């Protein structure tokens, strides 16, 4: 699964002048989010989100990365604790 973050705020073409698209842009401007999270926060359908993300990607306005499911309930802190306890993370010793 991928996560998306906005690299620059775009001028939206007429078909994207709805509040749902502005909500998605706002979410992506603050943090990485999945397509599912965009559907839930904006009320847009999966198809609408997919087409919107494709349009943004074609304009070079998205940063994509693989979604890390390992953070669990504690969010980023949980991932850090797991890496620390397992000896991962590549810190210089």
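^ Assign residues to that structure.
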């Amino acid at each position: 699964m991928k996560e998306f973050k906005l690299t620059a705020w775009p001028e939206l073409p007429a078909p994207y002048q709805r509040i749902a698209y502005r909500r998605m842009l706002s979410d992506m401007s603050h943090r990485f989010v999945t397509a599912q999270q965009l559907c839930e926060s904006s009320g847009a359908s999966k198809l609408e989100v997919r087409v919107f993300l494709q349009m943004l990607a074609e304009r070079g306005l998205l940063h994509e990365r693989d979604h890390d499911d390992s953070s669990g309930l504690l969010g980023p802190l949980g991932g850090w604790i797991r890496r620390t306890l397992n000896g991962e993370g590549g810190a210089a010793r």
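The helical segments are 19-30, 35-42, 46-58, 76-85.
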